[in-house]
Amino acid sequence: MTTADGRGLPIASGVIEALGGTRRVQSELGRGASFSFALSATTHLLQNS
Length: 49
Hints:
Layout: H1 8-18, E1 22-28, E2 32-38, H2 41-47
Antiparallel strand pairs: 1-2
């Protein structure tokens, strides 16, 4: 198992937020957490046209 320093989630969250996406976390005590995100490609493409 590798160790983490805690920087990945804030960086990823900033990118997801900047692109207008959403993020979600599901956590279960003693089992860990799952993170997911969604981005709208069409919205981002239209804004940059």
